[in-house]
Amino acid sequence: MHFAPSASPVGGLAPPDPADGRSVDPAAPGRVVHTFRPATAADVHTAIDEAEAAAREWAASTPLRRATVLAGIADGLERRRDELAALITSEEGKPAGAARGEVGKSAEQFRLAAQLAYLVEGTTYPGEAPGTFAFTLRGPLGVIAAITPWNFPLSLAARKIAPALAVGNAVVFKPSPVTAGTGALLVEIAVEAGLPAPVLPVLQGHDSEAMAALLGDERIRGISFTGSDGVGALIRAHAHRQARLQLELGGRNAAVVCADADLEKAAADIVAGAFGLTGQACTSTDRVLVAKPVAAEFTALLTAKVRALRVGPGDRDGVTTGPVATAAQFERLTALKDHALAAGAGAVAEAELLDGRDPDGYWVAPTLFTEVPENHPLVADEVFGPFCSVVPVGDVEEALAIVNASSHGLVTGVHTADLAGAHRFAAAARCGIVKVNAPTTGNGVAPPFGGWKASSGGAFPEGGRQALDFVTDTKTVYLTHGAK
Question: What is the mean pLDDT of each run of 10 residues along the chain (484 residues)?
């Protein structure tokens, strides 16, 4: 079995770039940020052995102990915010402000999970027979594998790990090798906060035999993965038959701009959703469906905002957009842009690349496209990069039909002043998330996060109180106490 890189290399199992055993700075690829020893199949078995033993004690601990440790992890993340943010910028490339925001969101997720430790609740049912009382108990699965991507190396790890720990599971943590240092530092902070180290073992690298051992071990009761469709398919194929799956996969996301929208605000939101984080979010806006009466005006607004973006190293003042994270990303996106232009698409705006950059960095200019041929990959597939296309539409019904025709259904957005129309759109859109007058990117820690159709697998959303559904088992108890 070989876990090859996929077209969208966000997957936590995709090979690192440029070399095994190290992460590099995408703004200056000659600089090694972190080195690590790739895990072997033997390491996987050892980690699961230790996690299984440790999970029993962790599950038996009180909610107070688990909540105290989780709150301590949040404290540690906040205390080391600058260190973590600098590491995220160095390994993944996002601007320093966005990296600090990711650390803050991760701390929030651990604080929410500390509350979830007290909310593992059962249900009582009316007796159906004399002298019988029925109720349910919920308990941890045991050992869960968390396989995380490089685009949000801290917050997506926190969203998977924190609720699993809250209810008493152990977690075998497999971060992306692209951001191995960030994953290692998260584990270090967790252990410093009092978490027993065997409860959260970390496996680095992308060795195929090691990954096969992880997915195939029947002691792994649940597998939570965020990444590409291709790697998600491999996990489905090679996970053992009893494994519970939680797969957050690709998004082919469109935002709709109605004729009555606040066009200035909508343009700002579209630029944030399409080009923030260098477009490397599964919730990024790939295309904007604009009502024809305002399409020219709206395109002009977008053009000005795209040209105002500044592309450079994430630790430099004034930078709005960092490099893409890997050489594979750079090569794929460069080829995609060239192919679109050759097919007749127009690049109506490009962002400025700042002077003084390392010429070997993975620089891809944010670009706004028009006249993209129908069914071209730029508008039909997940872009996962700083490209966005403007597509004029006749009305919101046509736009909704385009949104719903996609094989994926992660997130969509609508910009309108008509609140009733927004409600109708939200009800009809076949997506797991609908944003009204807001960027498609960004989500809270309490609401559930999950896509529909090909954007998800396993029917278990992440986030908030619903996260307990994936990380716990339910047991029904019938207690007969004797009828009079």
Answer: 39 45 96 96 98 97 98 98 98 97 98 97 91 94 98 98 98 97 98 98 95 97 96 95 96 97 98 97 97 98 98 95 97 97 97 93 98 94 97 96 96 97 97 98 95 91 94 95 69
Query: Please, where are the H alpha helices in 375-447?
Result: 377-380, 396-405, 419-428
d(CA 472, CA 482): 31
* Peptide bond just before 461 cis, omega within 30 deg: no
The model scores a pTM over 0.70: yes
Q: Catalytic residues, which ones? A: 248, 282
Torsion of Cα atoms, 38 then 214 then 232 then 440, to 10°: -70
Which residue ranges form the domains of the chain, and what is each CATH number?
A: 22-249+455-477 (3.40.605.10), 253-436 (3.40.309.10)
Closest CA to 456 of 263, 279, 226, 174: 226
What span, in angstroms and rounded, lies between the C-alpha atoms of 56 and 243?
19
Question: Distance (Å, rounded) from C-alpha 71 to C-alpha 85?
Answer: 20
